[in-house]
Amino acid sequence: MSKLKIALIIGLVFIVAAVMVIIPGCKTATTAETTAAAATTAAATTAAAATTAAATTAAAATTAAAAGKTYDDFRKMALAGKYDGEPAKGHTLAFANIIKSFPFCTSVENNIVEEWKLAGGADADLTVLDNAADATIAIQNKDIIFNKKPEVFLEFQFDAKINDQIAQEAKGKGIFMIAIDVPVGDFPFMGVNNYGTAVLTGDWAIDQIEKNGGIDKVDLVLYMTNPTVGETVFQRIKGSVDEFVKKYGDALNPDKAGGKGVWAVVDSSSTEKAKTDFGNVLAKYPNAKNIVIFALNDQSASGFQAAADIAGRWDADNMLVCSQGLDELGMQLIRDGIVDGDSTYFPEKYGEYLIPGSLAYMYGGAGAVPKQMFVDNVIITKANIDQYYPAK
């Protein structure tokens, strides 16, 4: 074979080898370009979907506003005692009560049911369950309600940590929630301005103390607390603490040892449990005669009185009992001279906020519901109770 042929063969081999190396490179480049194009398309699709969702929400809110079906519109209807056009008809709602046996909670439930029917809602489209102040039952109720897939779930549940878990699951299932008195994630909140009502109560208590000789006449101030209720409900007491410390200094600060102001860790879920815990608290201060107490609810206030009575230390003239919520039990405690001042939340009117909030979502989406729907608060005493709640 001539040298020329050998050279041509060798050259051909090099050319084939080069082509084999170049071809995979071309395929990789093509794949990369295809992947990049797909990613760009996916991103554009996601962005378009988000834009569409936002536009849909905005359009729903605009439509609701144009139709006179905003939260403010529904609130006006609730206050007037008449809803235009049965707006709840054909819609679904669920409510889990914190503890049905409490008069306060019974009032809340009754008003929700009443407002739902007034708005044209059907019994068959309303699910009502009782959490019974039990986190385990609350989780079971949550599962029942999620399986029913209501448009709105009204949650009244005391354990803030469990509420956060429920909120995350609700978002994953696309179920809208409204929290009642205890936050549920970042869903809208309806209920009391906890810090505001505590400030109101604290200022009222200061007025009573000043009218009766001043803080020197007071031996002990009990600020009730209960870790399970979470930070938000704790503010019902914290506002009063801040007002007392601002007025009287660190001697009334429960975080400073040796003063007149102390924390009282008490279970607020029943009068019996509160009685037991307050009995233990009072035993730590056997010489305290003139006592001011800030209770989280009327069941706790009743438990305090029972504990003091059992210990032979109850004297209404030497006790200033301040409570929160004013349910039927609280009304009786005021008339009996046991509770001196009770910040009422008007539980019999909760439905007048919750049903308008629910309807606002049904017609206008999440953006149509206020993030906070606060009730008004008034300190009810023996002198003014009949003005708000005439004796039956």
What level of helicity do the residues show?
40-55%
Mean pLDDT rating = 86
Q: How much is the radius of gyration in Å?
A: 32 Å
- What's the number of helices? 12
Low-confidence residue ranges: 1-63
- Overall number of domains: 2
Class based on secondary structure composition and strand pairing: alpha/beta
Main pleated sheet: 6 strands, parallel
**What is the 3D form?**
elongated
Structural commentary:
The protein has two domains: 80-191 and 349-374, 3-Layer(aba) Sandwich (Rossmann fold); 194-344, Response regulator (Rossmann fold). 53% of the residues lie in helices and 14% in strands. The protein has twelve helices and twelve strands. It has helices at residues 3-66, 71-80, 103-118, 135-148, 160-173, 194-211, 230-248, 271-283, 298-310, 328-335, 351-364, 385-388; strands at residues 93-97, 126-130, 152-155, 176-180, 189-191, 220-225, 261-265, 291-294, 319-325, 341-344, 372-374, 378-380. A six-stranded parallel beta sheet has the order 2-1-3-4-5-11, with helices on both faces. The chain has a six-stranded mixed beta sheet with strand order 7-6-8-9-10-12, sandwiched between helices. Strand 8 (291-294), helix 9 (298-310) and strand 9 (319-325) form a beta-alpha-beta unit. It is elongated, with a radius of gyration of 32 Å.
